[in-house]
Amino acid sequence: MSGGCIVSGSTLRRSLLCDDVHVHSYGRIERAVILPFVDVGRQARLTNVIVDAGVRVPAGLVVGEDPALDAARFRRTARGISLVTQPMIDRLQQH
Questions:
Q1: What are phi and psi of 86, to 5 degrees?
Q2: CB 67 within 8 Å of CB 34
Q3: Residues 37/21, Cβ–Cβ less than 8 Å
Q4: How far lies 20's CA from each of 52, 68, 77, 87, in Å?
Q5: No. of H helices and E strands in the chain?
Q6: pLDDT tens, 43-95?
Q7: CB-based burial of residue 38 (10 Å sphere; 0-12 exposed, 13-18 middle, 19+ buried)?
Q8: Is-contact 39 22, C-beta < 8 A?
């Protein structure tokens, strides 16, 4: 974890949090790289992800547990790593 990070009652495993990341309660983050100024909502579960800088991850979002769903919503590598950007999140909220 870098400076300015706040993790409120969530689980982090094998992950890198850059500056000023806020992870709200009851979440789980595993094998993730979270770039600066990201806000992760309550009960979000993020596995095998790279979250772009400045993203606002909505509460309850699950990434990394359903490969087909991840591929439909996010950019996903052959090794199962999903890239999450703000425009991708915005598209989810429009549906």
A1: -65, -40
A2: no
A3: yes
A4: 13, 31, 27, 20
A5: 2, 11
A6: 999 999 999 999 999 999 999 999 999 999 999 999 999 999 999 999 998 86
A7: buried
A8: yes
| Identity of the amino acid at 53 | A
Q: Where do runs of H (alpha helix) occur along 1-95? A: 67-73, 86-94
Please enumerate in sequence order all residues whose Cβ is within 8 A of that of 63, keeping only pairs 6 or more positions apart, or say none. Answer: 45, 46, 47, 49, 70, 73, 74, 82, 84
The vertex-38 CA angle with 25 and 61, nearest 5°, equals: 55
Number of neighbours of residue 76 by Cβ within 10 angstroms? 20
pTM: 0.95
